[in-house]
Design brief:
alpha/beta; 4 domains; OB fold (Dihydrolipoamide Acetyltransferase, E2P); inorganic pyrophosphatase (n-terminal core); 38% helix; disordered N terminus; 5-stranded parallel β-sheet; 6-stranded antiparallel β-sheet
C-alpha cells in the first residue's frame, strides 16, 4: 500500500477554504406566522428573524424605516446646541472657519459635505487634510498653528479629533474655538474642545448611535440649515455625500443610516452634483428598478418627524454599486493620491472639471489595484515562510516589511484576515526608525482595545473594534509582537481561528429565480449589521470551472431534483488558489443580478465551499467496518479508510493492485502501486470523482 502521507505531496493552497459555517436555526412555523402577520414571504420572514426581528412592529420599522419616529438630534447630542451657536456666530461675524478632514472616503465626503453646506450658508470656510505619507491620521500641531497664522477663529474636525488631545489643547492656547465631529472610539481622556459630537458619547439606544463621521457632519449641517431657515437646495446634495461616505466607511445600515441611505440610493442616479454624476458615469454604474422594495416612496430628508411627501422613485442604486464601484475610486485617491482631488470633485459645479477629476480617480484606482495585488502576493509568501506554522499558537498575525505603500496595506490586511482567519496587524517602514501600520480584525477580537493594551509601545493610534491604525518606533516591533500575541491568547480560542461564515438558510437551485431575488429587495439596503442574505445548497455538482480575470473562478453548478437537473452560473472572487474545486461540494453564496446584452439573469457569488457533509462525516468518523468491496464499470474494487498521520485517508484498490489515495479537503490524490512511484492526480476530474462516489456509497451501505 501507499506509505507516505498524501499531504506531503499536496500543496497547501490546493485545499479548500478553511471556514467556520454557522447556519442559523430555522424556525419555519414562526416564520410562517410572522409572514402572515406582516404580508411578506416566509423566506424574508426567516431572514428578518435571523437579524433579530421577532415582532410585527420590529419588522414594520425595518421594512419601512420612514415610519421611525426620530428624536431631535438636539435631544441626543449634548454638545450640538453649542456647536450650532459657534457656527452661527462665526457665519454672522465672518470669522474664518477651517475644516480638518481625513483622507479616507468617510473623511473626504464629510469635508466636502461641510464645505458645500457652510459656503452655501454664507460662511468663510476652507479646509486642510493631513498628509497620509508624512503626517498620518488626524489633526496635528502643524495644522493648528498654520490655521492660526491664517487668521482662523474656529476649527471643525471631521472623522477625526477624538484622540487629538495635544493639538486641540494647542488650538485652545492660541485662542481658537474647536468643534470635534468624529465617530471613533472614545479615549480615556477627551480633548479640551469647545464641543464634541460623537455618537459613541450618546445613549446606546439612540437611533443616531451608528452614524459614521459623514453622518455626524450631515446631522450638524442639516441642523444648522434648519436653524437658519436655509434648507432649500441643500438637503439632496448633502444626502448624496452622506450616502457615499456611509457605505464606503462600512457603517451599520440600521437605524437612521438605513433610513437615510435608502433615500440617498434613490436620489443618487438623478443627483445634481457634478462630481457624483461624473463618478457614476466613469464607474459604469447603472441605476436599476427597485421593484419589490416594499413600495416605499422617497421624501426629502428631515431630522425631525414631518409629514410624508411622496415622490415617484423609479430607479435606485444598491450599496454594492458604491462599495465596489464608486467608493474604491474615492478611497484610492486618499490612499495613494492627493485628497484635494476628491474634495474638488465633490464640490465643483462644473461638469467638465468633474469628469476630468473622475478620470483621475479612475486611473489612480487602477494603480491602487495593481499595488494591492503585488503587496498581497509578497505578504502571503512572507507569512507562509515565517508565520503560518505558529498561527494556531500566536492567534494573531503581525506582518511588517519595507517598501510597502502604507496607503494600501489596510486593504491587504483585510485580505489576509479572509485567508488566515486571524486578526492582522500589517505595517511598513516610514524610515529606518519608524513603522506605520493598519489592523483588521475578526468578530471576537477588538482592535482598539488591543492597541490600548500596547499603548506604551506605540506612537499615535486609533480605531474601533474591527479596524485601526498605529505607528511605533521600529525598535519596539518584537515587544509589540509579543504583547499582541499575549492579548490575542486572552480573548481568542483555537476554534475562532477560521473565517466565520454566517448562513441564513438552505435553498435548492430550482427555487433560485427572479421572484426570490425581488423578494430579497425588501431587506435592502444591505451592508454592515444588515448583511446580504447568504444561502447554501448541499452536494452540488461543479460541471464547469475556469479561471477568469485576476484569479477569479467562473463556474457552473448543477443539482438534480426529482430526476431533473438544474444549472446556474456562479463566480468566486479571488479564489484562484482553490482552483480546481472538487466535483461535489456544498456551496454558500449570495444572489446577484447579471446584466448582459439586455438580459438579466440571477447568478451566485460563492463565498463558501466545503466537502459535502456526508464526506466530512466519513472522514471524521469512518464507518465500522471501515472497508468494503464494490463494482464499478464492470470491474471489482476494494476500498477503505486508513489512518495516515493525524488524518483518515480513503484508499481505493483495483484488481491489478493500483491504489487511489485521498485525504479530506484535498483535490490532489496519489495513484500508483506504492508511494515511491505514485503520481499526483486531480481527483476532482470526473473519472476519479465517480469512482470515489461509488466507494463512499459502498462504505455507507456496509456500515
Amino acid at each position: 500500500m501507499l506509505e507516505r502521507p498524501v499531504s506531503e505531496l499536496s500543496k497547501p493552497h490546493r485545499r479548500l477554504p478553511d471556514q467556520r459555517w454557522q447556519i442559523y436555526p430555522q424556525k419555519p412555523e414562526f416564520a410562517q406566522n410572522l409572514a402572515a402577520l406582516t404580508n411578506i414571504s416566509p423566506i424574508v420572514s426567516q431572514l428578518l428573524i435571523n437579524r433579530g426581528m421577532e415582532t410585527p412592529e420590529q419588522v414594520q420599522a425595518f421594512l419601512n424605516p420612514e415610519s421611525l419616529v426620530l428624536p431631535s438630534p438636539l435631544e441626543d447630542f449634548p454638545d450640538l446646541a453649542i456647536s450650532l451657536e459657534l457656527l452661527q456666530n462665526a457665519i454672522a461675524s465672518q470669522t474664518k472657519i477651517a475644516i480638518c478632514g481625513d483622507y479616507d472616503a468617510d473623511g473626504m465626503t464629510s469635508t466636502a459635505l461641510l464645505l458645500r453646506s457652510l459656503r452655501t450658508l454664507g460662511a468663510q470656510v476652507d479646509y486642510a487634510i493631513p498628509s497620509r505619507m508624512h503626517e498620518g491620521y488626524g489633526i496635528n500641531k502643524r495644522i493648528v498653528e498654520e490655521f492660526h497664522s491664517e487668521g482662523v477663529g474656529l476649527i471643525l474636525t471631521v472623522d477625526n479629533g477624538i484622540s487629538a488631545f495635544e493639538p486641540v489643547a494647542r488650538a485652545r492656547e492660541l485662542g481658537l474655538a474647536v468643534i470635534i465631529t468624529d465617530h471613533h472610539d472614545i479615549p480615556q481622556k477627551l480633548p479640551p474642545a469647545n464641543a464634541i459630537l460623537n455618537p459613541k458619547l450618546i445613549a446606546e439606544s439612540s437611533p443616531y448611535r451608528g452614524v459614521a463621521g459623514v453622518g455626524v457632519a450631515y446631522i450638524l449641517a442639516v441642523s444648522l440649515a434648519q436653524q437658519l431657515g436655509e434648507t432649500k437646495g441643500l438637503i439632496q446634495p448633502m444626502l448624496a455625500l452622506f450616502t457615499l461616505g456611509t457605505i464606503a466607511d462600512l457603517a451599520p445600515l440600521t437605524g437612521v443610516n438605513r433610513r437615510w441611505v435608502k433615500r440617498g440610493l434613490q436620489h443618487l442616479p438623478k443627483s445634481n452634483l457634478a462630481g457624483v454624476k461624473a463618478l457614476i458615469q466613469v464607474g459604469g454604474v447603472q441605476a436599476r428598478g427597485d421593484e419589490g422594495a416594499g413600495g416605499d416612496r422617497e421624501k426629502l430628508p428631515s431630522l425631525v418627524p414631518s409629514p410624508q411627501s411622496p415622490v415617484p422613485s423609479p430607479k435606485s442604486l444598491k450599496p454594492e454599486d458604491i462599495g465596489f464601484r464608486l467608493g474604491p475610486r474615492i478611497n484610492a485617491i486618499g490612499r495613494i493620491g492627493n485628497p484635494q482631488t476628491v474634495i474638488e470633485l465633490l464640490t465643483t459645479d462644473d461638469m467638465g472639471v468633474a469628469l476630468e477629476l473622475a478620470m483621475r480617480c479612475e486611473q489612480i484606482n487602477a494603480s491602487r489595484q495593481e499595488m494591492c495585488q503585488q503587496i498581497e502576493q509578497e505578504a502571503i509568501a512572507y507569512v507562509e515562510t515565517e508565520f503560518v506554522a505558529s498561527l494556531q499558537q500566536d492567534r494573531v498575525l503581525i506582518v511588517v516589511q519595507p517598501n510597502w505603500h502604507h496607503g494600501v496595506i489596510g486593504i491587504v490586511a483585510s485580505r489576509l484576515v479572509e485567508r488566515y482567519g486571524v486578526p492582522v496587524f500589517i505595517g511598513t517602514y516610514e524610515d529606518e526608525g519608524h513603522i506605520r501600520g493598519s489592523a483588521r480584525s475578526i468578530p471576537e477580537f477588538h482592535v482598539f482595545e488591543a492597541l490600548e493594551y500596547c499603548h506604551d509601545l506605540l506612537g499615535k493610534f486609533g480605531g474601533h473594534k474591527a479596524a485601526g491604525g498605529f505607528s511605533l518606533p521600529a525598535e519596539n516591533l518584537q515587544v509589540l509582537r509579543s504583547r499582541l500575541i499575549e492579548f490575542a491568547n486572552q480573548c481568542l480560542e483555537p476554534h475562532h481561528l477560521k473565517p466565520l461564515l454566517k448562513i441564513d438558510a438552505e435553498v435548492n437551485l430550482n427555487h433560485i429565480n427572479q421572484q426570490l431575488y425581488q423578494q430579497l429587495n425588501a431587506l435592502h439596503p444591505c451592508g454592515m449589521d444588515n448583511p446580504d442574505p447568504v444561502f447554501w445548497t448541499p452536494n452540488v455538482q461543479v460541471v464547469e470551472q475556469k479561471i477568469v480575470g485576476k484569479g477569479h473562478i467562473k463556474l457552473t453548478i448543477a443539482q438534480t431534483i426529482d430526476n431533473q437537473e438544474y444549472k446556474i452560473k456562479a463566480i468566486a472572487w479571488r479564489w484562484g488558489d482553490y482552483f480546481r474545486l472538487p466535483t461535489r461540494v456544498d456551496v454558500a453564496y449570495k444572489l446577484r443580478e447579471n446584466y448582459f446584452n439586455g438580459n438579466t439573469t440571477i447568478e451566485l457569488e460563492l463565498i463558501g465551499v466545503r466537502l459535502p457533509i456526508q464526506l466530512q462525516q466519513f472522514f471524521a468518523a469512518p464507518p465500522t467496518p471501515s472497508s468494503s468491496t464494490f463494482e464499478y464499470n464492470q470491474r471489482q474494487y476494494t476500498c477503505g479508510f486508513y489512518k495516515n498521520g493525524l488524518e483518515a485517508e480513503l484508499r481505493i484498490k483495483n484488481s491489478e493492485g493500483k491504489v487511489l489515495a485521498m485525504q479530506p479537503g484535498h483535490i490532489i490524490g496519489l495513484l500508483g502501486t506504492n508511494r515511491q512511484n505514485a503520481k499526483e492526480v486531480d481527483i476532482s476530474q470526473p473519472q476519479y470523482d465517480s469512482i470515489i462516489q461509488a466507494a463512499l456509497q459502498a462504505l455507507s451501505v456496509r456500515s
